[in-house]
Task: inverse folding
């Protein structure tokens, strides 16, 4: 079950990155970061904000809110689940 959650994260973050969709990242300490997703892995997200890169650890993130809906289809999710 945890594997599908990680794959949904990957699809969501990758579509935000590829679509250059601005996101707001809310942290557990109450801070909010806004910018573009430039990359991510299992533990971190690289966010570009005001010309600077910020390395955000996923364990400090509560929510990621895109500026517009992130579109993805079931095939993307199924392909990621089969990897």
Result:
């Amino acid at each position: 079950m945890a594997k599908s959650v990680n794959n949904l994260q990957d699809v969501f973050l990758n579509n935000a990155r590829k679509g250059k969709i601005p996101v707001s990242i809310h942290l557990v300490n109450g801070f909010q970061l806004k910018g573009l997703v430039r990359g991510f892995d299992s533990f971190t997200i690289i966010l570009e904000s005001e010309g600077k890169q910020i390395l955000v650890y996923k364990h400090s993130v509560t929510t990621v809110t895109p500026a517009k809906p992130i579109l993805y289809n079931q095939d993307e999710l199924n392909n990621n689940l089969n990897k």
Q: What stands out?
A: The chain has one domain: 2-78.
